[in-house]
């Protein structure tokens, strides 16, 4: 019954109903390097997915930030701008059952990886799934 109520509330607000794009509290990390020894910089934030657009806000070890971007539920992709008071970081991610994985860039010199997931999903993600950015994503960044 609670699920029915949650679904009807999402429909009223026109929130995304695809299970891989849940609106609400999210968490995750970004790295400045790739690989298993890369230091993880944690972040906590909210995201709202609605009609192909994603918005949100949060905090990490740099400052408070906002998210603005788009997602494609057919291609399972998400592109977001993370806006700080001082600069913007561009995020490009692939979506799967473990959240959103991908790369970030501050043109022209800085780049790294990231993994974010819904907080409620975090309890079900294995430690190894949270450990590093997948090699396929790293290869794409290195070869671009």
What would you say about this model in short?
The chain has one domain. The longest helix has 12 residues.
Task: Give a written overview of the molecule.
The chain has 144 residues and is an alpha+beta fold. The protein has one domain (2-143). Helices cover 21% and strands 47% of the residues. It has four helices and eight strands. The protein has helices at 2-13, 119-122, 127-131, 135-143, and strands spanning 24-30, 41-50, 53-60, 64-72, 77-83, 88-96, 99-106, 110-118. Strands 1-2-3-4-5-6-7-8 form an eight-stranded antiparallel beta barrel. Mean pLDDT is 85; it is low at 135-144.
> What pattern of helices and strands is seen along the backbone?
HEEEEEEEEHHH
Give the neighbour order of strands across the main sheet.
1-2-3-4-5-6-7-8
User: What would you call the structural class?
Assistant: alpha+beta
Distance between the termini: 48 Å
* pLDDT averaged residue by residue: 85
Low-confidence stretches: 135-144
Q: With helices defined by DSSP (H or I, 4 residues minimum), what is the helix count?
A: 4
- Based on CA atoms alone, the radius of gyration comes out at 15 Å
Number of self-contained structural domains: 1
Shape: globular
Strand content: over 45%
Q: Percent of residues in helical segments?
A: 10-25%
- Summarize the main sheet: 8 strands, antiparallel, barrel
Total beta strand runs: 8
